[in-house]
Design goal:
The structure is a homodimer of 135-residue chains. The first copy, chain A, has one helix at residues 43-46; strands spanning 5-7, 11-14, 34-38, 54-60, 70-71, 82-83, 96-107, 110-114, 123-129. The longest helix of chain A is centred in the first third of the chain and has 4 residues, at 43-46. Chain A is built from one helix and nine strands; from the N terminus they run βββαββββββ. Chain A is mostly beta strands and 135 residues long. In chain A, 42% of the residues are buried. At the A-B interface, strand 1, helix 1, strand 4, strand 6 and strand 7 of A face strand 1, helix 1, strand 4, strand 6 and strand 7 of B.
Chain lengths: 135, 135
């Protein structure tokens, strides 16, 4: 049950955010617009995305530490240490980022989104529709 | 930007669901309760999970086809073919499952959840809290 699996990025984030010191902790706390730049090979999978929709974007937080199991939430030492699976810490065993974003524009294989707190160059691994009830 | 990354499962799903023909398409459509069985090595990360909370569980849908970019949603040929990134199809380039579930019980490194539509044996890759607004 511990076979590793291979994530193959389908694109990357183009954003003015360059490091974790300056990035907001969550997109809805004031992240700038960002472009999702997809590999041409996955264009067919994007064809039904629509401007105005909210989607979940999954990323691979490649600057993370994977051996961390407890953190002070929001990198604030005043917050009590908490198990990572009760936080959105980027440091965790499998550093997958889950971001709910709003699609503002689509230009071929590039998608402009609001409220994405990922750094420039972050690999994208998936995009999913938001279902009823925010699921 | 196409460097592969390695997912290392942190546990697996123990569920009465055994194949895609009999499983519901979404957990809230009537999935049975399931146990999340975590590896002992990640127990510290679980310590703040609480009965009664909703969390996102991320899985690796290991029975999926990764070369699929368009599908008939819900495996129903009457539904028009749709780009996978506008569907929750398990067949997609990086078959990560995103499941919002309700924690019903916790017994050490085993967590009982409601509404999980994953098959028995599905690897678990992450658990995250649900933030305000279902994010």
């Amino acid at each position: 049950m511990t076979t590793p699996y291979e994530i193959r990025p389908i694109g990357y984030v183009r954003s003015p955010l360059v490091d974790r010191e300056t990035a907001p902790k969550q997109g809805f706390e004031g992240a700038p617009d960002a472009w999702l730049v997809f590999n041409p090979g996955v264009a067919e999978g994007l064809r039904d995305l629509a401007v105005g929709a909210d989607v979940f974007v999954l990323t691979w937080l490649h600057q993370s530490q994977r051996d961390v199991l407890a953190v002070h939430p929001r990198d604030d030492p005043r917050n009590p240490e908490t198990g990572v699976f009760s936080t959105r810490s980027q440091d965790r065993p499998n550093p997958i980022g889950l971001h709910r974003v709003h699609i503002a524009a689509i230009e071929g294989p590039r998608v402009l989104v609001r409220d994405l707190e990922a750094f420039d160059g972050t690999p994208i691994v998936d995009v999913k529709p938001v279902l009823a009830g925010g699921r």
